Amino acid sequence: MGRVTRRHLTDLPGTLGLPVALAVASILAVLAFGLPALDRAVPAERAVASGRPYPVGAGVTVVPPPGAVLDVTGTRPGADRGTVLFRLGLVRYAIDVEPFDGDLTAAAVRLRQRITGINGHRITGTQLAVSTAGGFAGVQGGYTAGDRDGRYAVFVANGLTIEVMVSGDDTDLESALPAIDASTRTLRYEQGP
Fold it and tell me: How many CB atoms lie within 10 A of CB 93?
């Protein structure tokens, strides 16, 4: 057995432990409280260039409606899929692109089932044929979700399905639909270099 001296009792092992622990605690506090505060301080909406194609994803572009802003919380571009969310006042205008190996009928059935699978959502009216200036053939229809109404459209081209969802209250939606319809007609597939 060894003998314990006074020096052994006062010489604390790892004297750097307390400063390191305080530094780690400070970093964790900044991450836990500072980053969420910073995230709340940065606006989710960004201006988009008027009249210029915006890349949705997978080579698909759309010209946003005049006055639309990009909501970055619902926008995820990608090489083989993508989502973009625009807002025109209180109206949501979302476009989702993803790989798809079915036909237009299957894509329309899938989208309608997804809409009606949400509690309180139901399809209204009939489905109509629609096309874009870029050559996409599709179908469109309407739905209701409690106090909000909506429109949907789906297109299939180049191994992709392109789903368009628009929602808002009656008054806002009615005034925004002409600009959104014009924007939807600008959907194009642009192959990269």
Answer: 26
CA-to-CA distance for 75 and 94, rounded, in angstroms? 9
The CA distance from 99 to 103, in Å, is: 12
What is the mean pLDDT for each group of 10 consecutive residues in the chain (193 residues)? 59 61 76 64 74 94 95 92 96 97 96 93 93 92 91 95 96 95 94 60
Q: How many CB atoms lie within 10 A of CB 114?
A: 13
DSSP one-letter string for 67-93: T-EEEGGG-B--SS-EEEEEEETTEEE
The total number of residues written for the chain in this structure: 193
Q: Position 3: which residue type?
A: R
pLDDT at residue 26, rounded to an integer: 78
CA quadruple 109, 115, 121, 123: dihedral sign: negative
3-class secondary structure, 163: strand
**The model's pTM:** 0.78
Instruction: Say if residues 139 and 154 touch (Cβ distance below 8 Å).
Output: yes
